[in-house]
Amino acid sequence: MGETLLVTIQVDMQDQTALTLQDDLADRIAKTGASGVMIDISALEIVDSFVGRMLTSISGIARILSATTVVVGMQPAVAITLVELGLSLEGVKTALNVERGMELLRRSRLENVLDH
What we know:
53% of the residues lie in helices and 16% in strands. With 116 residues, the chain is an alpha/beta fold. The protein contains 4 helices and 4 strands. The two termini are 24 Å apart. The protein is globular and about 40 Å long. The chain has helices spanning 15-32, 49-64, 76-84, 98-115, and strands spanning 4-8, 36-40, 68-72, 93-95. Strands 1-2-3-4 form a 4-stranded parallel beta sheet, sandwiched between helices.
């Protein structure tokens, strides 16, 4: 969608699937020059510590490649689990839904333009 890569995760991810997603996203950011990555996890009912770390890792990789990552659609139970696991998703921006996530990315782009 424009300058944003949109990823929808429809199934609970296995570790290898998560690693493949991370590699594929890094390649796509580099190839397309995307300035934003939106990851919709609204279909996930369970997020374990590995997937939580993978979301943080994707955000870090995207940031190094000059893209902002926003995770949208997190279910309340997932948020509670992440807190209970002690995962703060450092550096990962979150929004309640895709619309709010797109607004967050739009504001981030404007801030980057003003900073440069």
